[in-house]
Amino acid sequence: MAELEHLGGKRAESARMRRAEQLRRWLGSLTEQEPAERRGAGRQPLTRRGSPRVRFEDGAVFLAACSSGDTDEVRKLLARGADINTVNVDGLTALHQACIDENLDMVKFLVENRANVNQQDNEGWTPLHAAASCGYLNIAEYFINHGASVGIVNSEGEVPSDLAEEPAMKDLLLEQVKKQGVDLEQSRKEEEQQLLQDARQWLNSGKIEDVRQARSGATALHVAAAKGYSEVLRLLIQAGYELNVQDYDGWTPLHAAAHWGVKEACSILAEALCDMDIRNKLGQTPFDVADEGLVEHLEMLQKKQNVLRSEKETRNKLIESDLNSKMQSGFFKNKEKMLYEEETPKSQEMEEENKESSSSSSEEEEGEDEASESETEKEAVLFWPF
Description:
single chain, mainly alpha, ANK repeat, cytoplasm, phosphoprotein, Ankyrin_rpt-contain_sf, repeat, elongated, Serine Threonine Protein Phosphatase 5, Tetratricopeptide repeat
């Protein structure tokens, strides 16, 4: 039991250190001075444009007050219109923070003031994911009693029970899975299936909807690349999705696939001839943000891509040359046809004249005239374009 407590303490300390690092990066960056919807590499569900604009400096004050545990100050900020679900650059809310800090009192205060217990951060974690990972059984129970879903999947395809290590936590969550009637396998596939349906619809209609994540500007192609939805990725490319589309941070789908180590997605994008050297707003290429284990693969893909580009250029030149040759040949053929059509009326006029001359002749010359008419008809047949 003491060993379990020690492990739980280590995870909690790790979570707190991660949180402190996130706050340090956030408070020292330009993001605290930009609208919330224009930041984050997030992978929350896609939403349409037009979300309310939130100033990060206001969010920083609110999150700091929550972190300090000052409920009176938090209450004042809420009365002045602070958004209780405001997020930092990593998509973490005050409720995530209170959970990581194991501050049950702040958790209760925030939930009572309508904090969203199922809000996901940029990695798809809900507060319940955090509680399960840290082993905070009392906080997990509180979340469940106040509407937390045990079937929400994070960006790694994990539900809260997947992150639970203590038997008591896992038992609690799996019992709720049965009670809530959650199909975990279906939950894991739900996002991919929705994207697959949308991709097929866009392909069939020939029209792609401009749908982006509100904060980060991520598109369906970013999501498919980051999460390794290979079939979705191929359909979107086939539908004509812009390969090098950038989110608000300048990240392309290849940046996302490389960063999250999705090897197959990188291959699909590279073989479709995406730009592998495009830079984000920090001047980073996909190579710069890639998972360490993927850099060598990216270098191999770039070499392969260079060969494909060269072959494509050669093929295009041959096609262009062949097309020019056919067009030139067709021009001369049409010219001959035009000359023929100019001569044909003259032949017909001569034929009519011969007929009139023949009809005005005496009956004694009738046989000879018929022979002449027959010969004229043969000549006309020889001029007919077969």
